[in-house]
UniProtKB/TrEMBL annotation, chain A:
Keyword Transmembrane helix: no
Record GO biological process: CUT catabolic process; nuclear mRNA surveillance of mRNA 3'-end processing; rRNA catabolic process; rRNA processing
Composition-biased stretches (Basic and acidic residues): 311-326, 1009-1021
Name of this chain's protein: Ribosomal RNA-processing protein 44
Organism: Entomortierella parvispora
GO MF entry, a single one: 3'-5'-RNA exonuclease activity
CC cofactor: Mg(2+)
PROSITE patterns assigned to the protein according to its UniProt record, in alphabetical order: RIBONUCLEASE_II
Subcellular location: Cytoplasm; Nucleus, Nucleolus
Keyword entries, A-Z: Cytoplasm, Endonuclease, Exonuclease, Exosome, Hydrolase, Nuclease, Nucleus, RNA-binding, rRNA processing
SMART domains for this protein: PINc, RNB
TrEMBL record, chain B:
Cellular component aspect of the GO annotation: cytoplasmic exosome (RNase complex); nuclear exosome (RNase complex); nucleolus
Keywords: Cytoplasm, Exosome
Pfam families found in the cross-reference section: RNase_PH (PF01138), RNase_PH_C (PF03725)
Protein's UniProt name: Ribosomal RNA-processing protein 42
Superkingdom: Eukaryota
Extent of Low complexity compositional bias: 128-145
Keyword presence, Cytoplasm: yes
Main subcellular location: cytoplasm
Amino acid sequence: MLRQKAFVKKTKSGKVLKVVKEHYLRDDIWCSAEACKECGHTETVLSATPSINKLFPLPHYIIPDTNIFMNQIDVMEKPQITNVIVLQTVLEEVKHLSLPIYKRVRDMISNKEKHFYVFSNEHHRETFIEKLKDESPNDRNDRAIRVATKWYANHIKDLKPQVSVVMMTDDAANRSKGTADGLQAVSVKWYIEALDNTELLDMISDSRELDDGQQLIYSEHLTPAHLSNGIKTGKFHQGKLGISSHNYLEGSVFTKIDGIEGTILIVGRENLNRAVDGDIIAVELLPKSEWRTTPTGVVVDEEEEKEEEESLKAEQKAASEHKEDVTMTDATKTATTTSALLDTPQPCGKVVGIIRRNWRQYCGFIDRKSVHTPAGSSAPINVLFYAMDSKIPKIKIRTRQAHSLLGQRIIVSIDSWPKTSKFPIGHFIRSLGEAGDKSTETEVLLLEHDVPFHEFSKQVLSFLPVEGENWVVQPEHFNGREDFRDLPVCSIDPPGCTDIDDALHVVALPNGNYQVGVHIADVTHFVKPGNVMDAEAASRGTTVYLVDKRIDMLPGLLGTNLCSLRSNVERLAFSCIWELNQDAEIVKVRFTKSVIASKASLTYEEAQNRIDDERMQDDITQGIRTLNTLAKKLKQKRLDMGALTLASPEVRFSLERDTQDPVDVEMKELKETNALVEEFMLLANISVARKIFEKFPDSAMLRCHPTPPASSFEKLEKAVARMGITIDHSTSKTLSESLDNAVLPEEPYFNKLLRIMTTRCMMQAVYFCSGAKIEQEFRHYGLATDIYTHFTSPIRRYSDVMVHRQLHAAIDSDISYGNELTDKESMNELCNVLNHRNRMAQQAARSSVELFTHLFFKNKVQEEEGYVIRILKNAFIVLVPKYGIEGIVYASAKAHKTTAAVDATATTAVATTTPAAGQPILVYNPETDSLQSTEPLAEGESPKIQIQLFQKVMVQISIDDDLKGGGEGGMRQKLKMDLLKPWVEGISVHGICNKDDPEAHAVTSSLHAADKSNSLKRETEAPATPKRADKRSKA
Amino acid sequence: MPSLISPAERDYILKGVECNIRADGRQRPDYREVILETGVVSQTSGSARVRIAGGTDVLVSVKAEIGPVQVDPETGDGADKGQIICSVECAPSASQQFEGRGADDLNNEITQMMSRILCNNTTSSYTSTAASTTGSSTTASRQSSGPGGINLQKLCIIPGQQCWILYIDALILDYGGNLMDAIFMGTRAAIFDTRIPKTEVQDLGDGQFEFEVLDDAEDTDPVEGREDMPICITLNKIGACHIVDASPLEELCTEARLVVAVNRSGQLCGLQKGQEGGIEPSLLLEMIQFGKTMGQTLIKQLDTKIKAEADADLAKRQRGEPVHKLGFFAQ
């Protein structure tokens, strides 16, 4: 039977098309109920005895409508919900409305245990319905669902054992129509209530609109047509919102303003207008008079917190909301007045509409203060949820298990953000476990960074060699491979490394030159393009290294065994062979697949010892020495070209063997041999990059490091200028030179610190497809090379796998390859995925270090030297090099300190005014980019206390236990840093061992004495040790 | 389509007409049987197929598209109006003479006739004078659409910017005489069948407008003023008499041809004379009068049939039954 469906469509070019589709109806669509003998199905999905509950004592299948999937997908995914008939009408609507949800429904359908059956009611002769005249599409679909339900009810009514169908919908009108038709209809809430499961009840999303009578907190978003037109005319700017990690009420959008790329700041709850980090938004610029230049402030407004709490308690009393508004506008006002002083304000804007939401599931915890019911109560209450990601606003959720969830890490998703609600409204999804627990926290950080960490599926594993562990190099493997088994190949890696993907060798040639080989694990021999294992590796993108574990990109058998170039076993490799002369210049280069047998797997330390130990004169040791000499020459050449030596504070944890608890922290040390390996890997990568670019000019996978924009150096330049140091960042060579010259004799750490901060000014290196950029943009700024790629770690990076395939295609014209190597578009897409995965992997690794740092500092209070590396409006960030950690020190007085400060005012000269709670003691001075005390200044006089970039301070590090599991305060960080020196009344704390230590005061008093001396000198030396300060005050 | 006729045949037809009996047994003012079906081409906004027993077979389709308004540079007229663009094409299969460029003249002639009558609804035409003389507001509003009947203002979406353009395309599938009448009947039926998608105009401020087309095929408007569309009656003068609905051979005997366009209120909407022969003033007046009466009756009958079909389709749809069209399966 043939029907027609017609609809009108407006194309992009403005044409109106009438689309007519032919629609065929069939009579061979089966019901798939196990007990049904009438239908011609062979395999059934719906079980003969589905579940029952209090409401429906008869076993039943559930037929949900579209909105059930759209709003309650989390509930539907629970194992308690099985035997569901997904109507084609519903599935198509879901697909149309939201692809992510559609994918999740599809996953459920393919999960055999869920017994989800897709019934193609739209193609079934008896359940297809024509749209009636004057019937809206929604009504038509609702009717289609009822018709299909009715069909099922009739069809299965005589089955033995007895079953029934239940239509599940939250639409009361649809339910009553269904009941009138003699169907069983139920809402999700009733159904779940009948299951007696509080966890499921919490997961029911409540997306109903709130009463209209409520006061609007946010202005309305504009319509999509308005937005697209505004963006077209340039009135609005489109971009992805990035929220500051220090202040969730401040975001920015990188976009084009009048044709020039720039950043628009969006400050304050009102201006952000319900946008969440990552959303694609439309921004309207504020008038120039409201632009500002102040740096980011940290929100620790406890007053605000309190009001939030109240508003929650009183369920939005208009009065408290109003008060809140006042404080908010006040804050904006003060900010604008300070900015009036400045010359180049930054464009500010407000969000007028959201083009695409980027809501995901968030890990976090419930705010203890928002739970008001007595313990043990199971009445549903509204509580506030803090996401671990500090960029996400608090989320209001309704739960019955608030008390049992306290102190747990839970996952929550946002349902809606109505304009009457200050916070987004969400619902509970699941609990991850006890907060502070290592495995829970590790899971949290993996989830938060979107790292796929599930086990490899059976399907993936099926592509491993059948021999498994016993796989050995067979004679047929020598086809097209060179036999390098006799070469003195060895590998040098960090201790405990099991996935060895590179090995080296050197042989002196008769003509006085050297043959140097870099051998890389031949992963592509095992991972063939397009299969499930390849797809899995591509989607993982990279291996993620956490402090205590590793999330592999490839199954362990390959990564740590068959591909790993272990010593004394024959392994397949992809080799890059150079002939280098005495000056380490490349005479010849060639690439080949090979078979090698590594003679030794060394650690950096072992290799270093071999170099140093003059008694060792074997082949391998001689080779390493030669390589070392060559590497030094290569490095010098690279530095001459302008390669940068940058630094980042990396630490290594010593873990206790059994508990995996950290027992010690040390900075990672770099040995000469690290540089040795690095040099040859760079050389290999560059050589390979040239080769594959030659073969695939449009689709080579390359890596570039863009030149950093001048603007990112501004602050740093200003800060070092005070010390008489200039940074020339025009090219990497000049930057490298200025970094080398930036040495302060009295501060040995300064150079390292400067390098760390320079690193942060850099852009991120990214993969790209050679066809997507012009050749001038291929440059790798940091390495000062005109072309670069990643070739040397195919076990842990997917980019290298692609490069291996391209290189293989480039050297062997006989092999056939698909368009995955030549298609510019798909290569571009892959690059984007890999860049994202890489970024996430880095962040996950960093978070893991942070987690272990927290565990390390648990129950410890440590005093350490630190350096100021960033100034915020009401706080500054301190880096403690010893542990490589950073923390925020707030420049506002704490509420509970107020009384103490009052006592101090009378006598000490330090605090002249009484710092009220929340009032800043140190105020930001935009001219010098520093925080300074607020006392009135005479002409030419410097403030008594100044906090500036690079300043050395003493801080006390501890773990704030209160915050664990959602204690007080808006800050999510758990590591607490308190200022010890310089002493600032109201901010600093007394050290544990030196309460009332006269030394602490000595610093400040000595500073006063030095006030009139050269201010520049004082600034650099102010945080010096008390001894030196004393000396100077005597002088 | 025969192009030549023998003297004997001519004499036979001439004499017959004189005696009020035509070769196929009809009398002078008799029409042949007309078969009409609407909604035959589903991709169009509206369509109709008209066949006249004896061969003539015409397919008319209306397609509504969006385009910029056409403003007359001299008068500035047209900024608030939609457009109608007509086109007629004779399928080469209809007649040997239509092969190659053979049908160009005929195509042009009919296209021009259609354009002149349907697209011309400027208020300066004669109906506006009629309206101003009567002075009645109801007639003024109706007649402001001119002889073509269709209210072009209603086809405008954003004044000065965008409007609906109705493309009326007639395809002559077979030739059996009296093309013009068949095409106009088909056009009327196709326009009655036409549904224009509803649009929602949004004011974006600063004189900027944006509109959305509602994608529901049901949520549509009929073409306003369609009842006032004229149809044509072609009168062929043979000897001293005139006949309607001439067959191909009768057309070859025609000395003069008069096409009378008339709307349902009997108003004359257009006249066109063809062939070399002359018509005496008294006969001309008689012919016009005859055409007017004939046209009015024909419109009434046509409308009844079209309405009956539309009602039947609607009833089916309300019951949720599929609407099946015979289309080209019709015998």
